[in-house]
Amino acid sequence: MKKLALLFALLPSLALAQAPNPPVKPELTELWTPVPRKVAPGPVVGQPPSDAVILFNGRDLDNWEAVAGGKADWLVGNGEFVVAPRSGSIQTKEKFGDVQLHVEWMVPVLPAARKGQDRGNSGIFLQGLYEVQVLDTLDNPTYVNGQAGSIYKQYAPLVNAQKPAPAWQSYDIVYTAPRFYGDGSLAEPARMTIFLNGILVQHNVPLLGPTEYRGIPAYKVHGDGVIMLQAHNNEVHYRNLWLRKL
Ligand code: MG
């Protein structure tokens, strides 16, 4: 009988415990500040928005210099520029950290004898160190972490999203610079997300270190860096280069 009495004594509090919580007001999870600033998109997707840093104005390479020093000597015309024969790589005069980068590039139609890494080879180096490969690899077998859309010698693209030459190809790259501790050791690796012709080919991958042609990459502490375009003794055209600082 004692047990039964205890149960009846407890019943009201048990019922209370099972009562539904009062409904949460939807306003409690609304954020009203800070208000995102307005950025006007370009008239067509791929054209620079209002807050873009224009890296190439279609007329000259005044924002660029030769990596070896002196003027950028690539050939400008028709709103584009092309790697000059026997010239060296070029880089922006300005240095950058985290960016959203847009680049359009084109490899002309080449004879079938031009194969592998000798078929429109160039590259876009973020902070002068981390290469997104430029190469005509729609139907050109090579190591997959060296084809277009790859982060050279690190990550193959998720898919082959190239158009047939001589179509213009577009890269949209979201780059997060690496972070270092005060003692120079790595806190966070660099990361990249890449769209090739609007198709996702790299999804927030952590970079292993600066691009190395031979051997295993290893991070070394650095700050902001240039955007570099690689001269590889191959004809490659560029146009409509801009970025947004993130
Ligand atoms: Mg290259």
Q: What do these coordinates show?
A:
The chain has 246 residues and is mainly beta. The protein has a single domain, classed as Jelly Rolls (Sandwich), CATH 2.60.120. The chain contains 1 helix and 15 strands. The protein has one helix at 2-18, and strands at 53-54, 64-66, 75-77, 80-82, 90-92, 99-106, 122-126, 130-134, 169-176, 179-180, 186-188, 191-196, 199-206, 228-229, 237-245. The strands form 3 sheets. Strands 1, 3, 4, 6, 9, 12, 13 and 15 form an 8-stranded antiparallel β-sheet that branches. The protein has a 5-stranded antiparallel β-sheet with strand order 2-5-14-7-8, with no helix packed on it. Strands 10-11 form a two-stranded antiparallel ribbon. The termini are far apart. The relative contact order is 0.21. The site of magnesium ion has 7 residues, from strand 7 and strand 8.
Mean pLDDT: 94
Q: Give the number of domains.
A: 1
The level-1 CATH class: Mainly Beta
Number of helices: 1
Biggest sheet architecture = 8 strands, antiparallel
**Morphology:** globular
- CATH domain fold name: Jelly Rolls
Summarize the topology.
Blueprint lengths: L1 H17 L34 E2 L9 E3 L8 E3 L2 E3 L7 E3 L6 E8 L15 E5 L3 E5 L34 E8 L2 E2 L5 E3 L2 E6 L2 E8 L21 E2 L7 E9 L1
Antiparallel strand pairs: 1-15, 2-5, 3-4, 4-15, 5-14, 6-9, 6-15, 7-8, 7-14, 9-12, 10-11, 12-13
Bound molecules: magnesium ion.
